[in-house]
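Write out the 3D structure for:
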Amino acid sequence: MGNISSCLGKHPVPAETSSTCATPTATAAHNFIVENYSLLNGMGVGKFVSSTTFSVGGNNWSIRFYPDGDGRGPGYASAFLHLVGGAAGATGVKAKFTLSLLGKDGKVYKDSKPVSIAPTFERGDVNSTWGVVKFVEKSMLQEADCFTVRCDLTVLKEAVVQKM
């Protein structure tokens, strides 16, 4: 009787390796409460009020709210997330964020819709701002007079690859 394995032939078992890729993130939310909108209405197209600076993922941010719009969407107020500054060394900051209009009850206001964006902000660029030109119709805001522009922000760090 012969050896069965010699009949079947020997096939070498290939070597197997694995690695993982993980993208660390930092997430936070900032609420910019706008009171007395009626007093801001008419301040001028292209003019904005800014939230205080908040920090997420080692970078400083602010929300810019344009009560009369930024000039590209007549009849609408605009809202943008602005990269104020941050840690030196990187050429761009990858982020995902959602801008929402909330009423006094903390819920999404009437017919407004949260808008999500996933841009790369460039450091050192004073115009490193992304957002929504037609954030909400101005007529809706005149009814509210007090509301919150909420930004839910996730900053993506460099992917980390490791052997397993």
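The longest helix spans residues 138-144.
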